[in-house]
Every structure is written in structure tokens, then in C-alpha cells.
Amino acid sequence: MSDRRDETSGADGSRGLGARWALGALSGLLAGYTALAVAELASVPVRPEAGPVVAVGGAVIDRTPVSVKDWAVRTFGNDDKFVLQLGIVVLLALFAVAVGMLAVRHRRLGAAGVLGFGALGAFAALSRPDAATLDAVPSLAGAVAGALVLHFLVGRMSARNEGREAGEGTDSNADGEGARSGPARRRFVLAAGAVAAGATGAGALGRGLNASSGGEAVASRDAVRLPRPVSPAAPVPRGAELGVKGLSPFRTPNRDFYRVDTLLRVPRLTTGGWSLRIHGEGVRRPLTLEYDELLGRGLIERDITMTCVSNEVGGSYVGNARWLGVPLAPLLSEAGVRPPSRGGRADQLVARSEDGMTLGSPVETVMDGRDAMLAVGMNGEPLPFTHGFPVRMLVPGLYGYVSACKWLRELELTTFDDFDVYWVERDWSRRAPVKTQSRIDTPRPLVGLRRGTVPVAGVAWAQHRGIDRVEVRVGDGPWHRARLADEDSTDTWRQWVWEWDATPGTHRLQVRATDRTGRTQTPDRQGTVPDGATGRHSVVVTVT
Questions:
Q1: How far, in Å, CA of 94 to CA of 35, rounded?
Q2: Which of 34, 267, 376, 495 could crosslink 199 through cysteines, CB 3.0-4.6 Å?
Q3: What percent of the chain lies above the pLDDT cut of 90?
């Protein structure tokens, strides 16, 4: 009889220990949830970007090797930031489970673990380029709240266990055991439910208040009335669109335009709170301009194709839009800036964004007569928030990482020897003219085709040089000259098409472009680092 009682006691002990670990894990998850919710609420008087997930994510992006960033962009595209945030939340949940289980045995040590994670979030927030001291507050406030919740819930659980242990050494039956543990279990469940409800309310309030501040930015953008340009864009030639099914349109809609940046939360700025400062070496008359002043300076309108340096051969990080903005060269001249070829002391124009990001453009290039601008409009409307509202910079012919600063707040004249911008510090080249490239849009890779005439079509670009010809070949056969669409300008891409007499079998189609300088795309493959990919795009198709 005693052996049976010992076996029953051992089984009950195992079940009891497993239940304690499970409740500890639940306590840790609720503590982590509370920490994030309170941090969201605490970010309201500071700024939304100071929240721990955004801060830690930004720090991860800053410290991630270039090759890993490049892989993430290629693999996840515009969803790379969502994947990063999801990964951070998953890791936080696993950490919360671990500290919750640790707290079952060592309650104070578990709470200290939560505080340690909060300190990590605060450090990440303070390490950002645009950091202010108060940016540490949301992570620290959330950590304190999470540690208190963990300490409290594990205390409730301990009270339950003490109730169970008080009955040991008696011959009470299972019904008696349940009678003792039932009220303690209910107390824990009620406490956990109250914590979950409170955290949900705090998080919802924080998100709502942060969203209301974003609503002010939406109202500010909606109120913008862009002036008519003093120099409108020329009408797009009728022959610029070839009308081939599956071919990228000449002008990329805003919703489809690529986005590549390092921000997990897009800045929501108002025009009333925006200003631009121009200063630095060789600036004889520093300028500070507000938004309305900028709009009153006479705008130009141009169709310009932009390309990201992270665009792989055949990739989608290229788009063409109609931009409206203030010419940049005259603005710099007004500030007394001269290019190096005319005796200017500065050879680098550093653009700083709202989040502290820095991009560096050659002063000589910006002032050589091309349509470099401070853009305020995109495809007939104020800039979307994701593309830099209220003001961004762009320079035709340069990759975006050295020219296309979004959410622009400052222009500083300096030298390449004296200052390395964000991407140069991460092993990208200081100077990065766009390379001549072409892409096959249709047919898509690995599709099945019918024998007969098949249009092979795509786009080619060589900004500020222009496309001279595009050629296509099948397998290792001869090159065939494609028909080019009419050119809008040397700063825009050109559509092309070649009518292929397709025969049965599996074929590899390859394209190459030649720009107006006579340079033809090299067949040599190179990755995007340090100054853009090279190689020729190809697709494999099957004809039946």
C-alpha cells in the first residue's frame, strides 16, 4: 500500500513540477507582453521611433553585415522590415519564456532578466544616429513594468504551491487536494487575466495616441497644394509605350514604386514643423528654408528613373516617375557654393534625413547641369510618406544610396576625405553612377510557350547617358537588335521588344544594352557590393 502511495506521490510531483514550469512560461510571456505595451504607451511623449522593437530593429540593421542585408533585400523584398520585426518579437517571446521559467526557481533573477532586456532596448535606442536621451525611457519603463508583473505572477504561483505543500504528509484524497489548490489556481488565473487586460489597454492607448500624431501628418499632406511648375516636363512621346502585355509601364505608379531604406517606422512629418538647413565648408551664405518658402522658389517637373544599388541583375528595384521639385544647383549657388572645378572647397554634399541617415553626393555632379532637385511631388501628388514626404533629394544618374535622401532635413558641404556617410562606413563606394542595365519582363522565367511568334520585351536604363540599342539572343546564338520605344529623355528608361520565332524546346533568352557612350553591358557577373551589380539578365522558357 505504501509503495502505491509513493508512486502516486511521485507522479503528482512530476505533474506539479510540469505545471509550475508551464505557469512560469506563461508568466514570462505576460511580462514580455506588458513590457512592450507599456513601452508603446511611454513612447507617446517621447516619439514612436523610441519603442524597443523599432529601436532594437534599427540597431540590428545598423550592425548587420552588408552581405546579410543584401540577402534580406533579395529574399524578402519590401517585406524585409516586417520579417525583421517578426523575428525580434519571436526572440523576445522565447526570452520571456526562459526568464519566466527561471523565475519559478529564482524570482528576483527572472525579474532582473527582464530589466536586462530593457537595458538592451535602451542602449539600442541611444545608439541610433538621431538619438536623444529621452529615447531610452520607453524601453526602461516597459522593462520595469514587465519585471514587476513577473515578480507578481510568480508570487501568485508560489502562493498556490505553498497551499499544496501544506497538505503533504497527510492521507488526504485527490478531492481534498483539488479543494486546496482550486482557490489558488483561480487567484493565479484572475491575476494573469487582469495583467493581460491591463497590458492590452495600455498598448491600445499607446498605439491610438501615436496614430493620432500620425493623423496630423496625414492632414498636413492632404492640405498641400503643389504649385504649377515654372518648367513643366515635356509630354511623354506617344511611342514611349510599346503596349506589350507583361511589360513594365513607362511610368511606375506610386503604390508599385520600390522602397529600400533602413527604417522600421516611416517618419510622419508635417509641413509646419519642417525646415531645411544648408551650411558647411565653402558656404558663404547659410540658408534655412521652410516648406512654403521652398514651394515658392519655382519648381521644375521631370520624368526620372531611379535605381537602387541593391538591385540585382534583372531585379525590380528600379522605377520611373514624374517628379516635381526645386532645382538643387541654383539653391547651392545662392548659398555661395562652387563646384571643385570652379575653385570650390567642398567636393561632397552630405544630405541628412529626419532619422539621422547620411548620404553623400559629389558636388561636381550635383552642379553639372543635370536636373538634381529637392523633390516635393511624385506622379502628380505630394510625396507619399514612404517616399520621403515632405521633401526628398534626387540626382539623375546616381544610385539612390548616394543621392536620394528621403525625409530630408539638412544639407552640409564637406569633403570625401573628411567625412564618411552611412553606407561608405559599411564598405560601399563613395561614388556610384548608375550602371547600364537591361531586363526581360516578358516572357517570365520557366513559363510554357506555344511555338510561333513570341514578343520578348523589357526595359533598359543608363540614366544621364541614354540607351543606344538593346540586343537579344537565344542560347549561344547571334545577337538580334530589338526595337526601342521612343526616348523620353536620357534620364528615363526605355522599353524594347524583339519578335522571336519560337521553336519547340527549352531555350535561354539573354539581353544586353549599349548606352550612348558606346559601352555595352559586360557578361561578367558581380554582386551589388560595392557599387552595383553587373552581368546580363536571362530567362529560361519552354516552347511546345
A1: 14
A2: 34
A3: 77
